[in-house]
Design brief:
mainly beta, 2 domains, 3-stranded antiparallel β-sheet, 17 strands, elongated, disordered N terminus
Length: 320
């Protein structure tokens, strides 16, 4: 998707006009940008070949993409929030710079991230602002990737439709269900227990319920109803994974789904949980002035497009 940005250029940017008329030129850039090096944001387009770039080096504690995506944990390590939700830089033409450039040819994909730019690329126009304010906003959404949306995993007892406030914690391990990839604490991942959420209908459709007690396996800590907790049915290997313990191979079932096997090996730990992270980084520039460009409004530079914005972390709850 392209965003249309109209900038007003004085006549001498492309040719001289004696009557002082203002020329309107349309710049079409994608609404995303990329990053590289010590905090260089850039976006470019072809036909004609143009680029916007931002270089930010004035803060030694915030001068890399790693700093932009840094997060802090709550005291119990359950919740993560951006370390710097909002960061501002003043454009000054030296340590913090904003440039508009045109070129003689289309730019290769790694132009701004190359130590030595291609020699065949020639900069035709280089306009730089010495004023303006760059604002970087970082947000973070975390999810347990269990096939169930966060809103569905919250009983919403507080009525605010926000799973992060007064969240449901089915197994009482301190991790709310929307961040817990093992909701019932049986050491079998929720997604493995086939809750079968239908996104179009917003409900579970025929969720797996091995013992037929009306509680789906993903919320049932005794899946086969043999009165032995699923997490305690590790007869072969005590590795917090009941799915690989099979006493009767002929049945084709692991012990935790086989009601005829009731051997108890008490669990001593919960499995390690994986929490997916999705960062969103947006940049705006306010009050910039390029020498031959008359543009004073806030410009939405766009949203960062980078593989680093998708990450994960692990958390192991304390076993009672």
């Amino acid at each position: 998707m392209r965003k249309l940005v109209t900038l007003f250029l004085l006549s001498f940017l492309f040719f001289t006009c004696d009557d002082g008329d203002v020329i309107t030129v349309e710049f079409e850039f994608d609404d995303t940008f990329e990053a590289c090096g010590n905090l260089v944001f850039h976006k470019e387009k072809d036909d004609p070949s143009e680029s916007f770039s931002i270089l930010l080096t004035s803060d030694s504690n915030y001068n890399s993409l790693e700093d932009v995506l840094a997060y802090t944990l709550s005291t119990d390590s359950v919740y993560a929030t951006p370390a710097t939700p909002t960061k501002e830089f003043t454009i000054n033409g030296s340590s913090n710079r904003f440039n508009y450039r045109t070129y003689n040819a289309d730019l290769p994909n790694n132009y701004f991230c190359s130590d030595v730019p291609p020699s065949e690329i020639e900069i035709l126009t280089d306009e730089e602002s010495v004023t303006g304010l760059v604002t970087i906003t970082t947000s973070l959404i975390e999810d347990d990737n269990d096939g169930l949306p966060a809103w569905f995993e919250d009983e919403n007892l507080d009525g605010d439709n926000d799973p992060s406030t007064n969240p449901t914690d089915t197994d009482g391990d301190g991790i709310p269900d929307y961040l817990d990839d093992d909701d019932d604490g049986d050491n079998v991942r929720t997604v493995t227990e086939n809750p079968n959420f239908d996104a179009a209908l917003g409900v579970l459709v025929d969720p797996q319920d091995t013992d037929g007690d009306g509680t789906p396996d993903y919320l049932d800590d005794d899946d086969d109803g043999d009165e032995v907790l699923t997490r305690d049915e590790e007869n072969d290997s005590q590795d917090q994974n009941p799915a690989n313990d099979v006493t009767n191979p002929a049945s084709g079932l692991p012990d935790y789904l086989n009601g005829d096997v009731m051997t108890t090996v008490p669990a001593t730990a919960w499995r390690t949980h994986t929490i997916l992270q999705e960062f969103t980084v947006k940049v705006e520039i306010e009050g910039f002035q390029l020498p031959n460009v008359n543009y004073f409004n806030t410009y939405n530079f766009g949203t960062l497009e980078a593989t680093e914005t998708n990450d994960s972390r692990t958390l192991t709850p304390i076993f009672p």
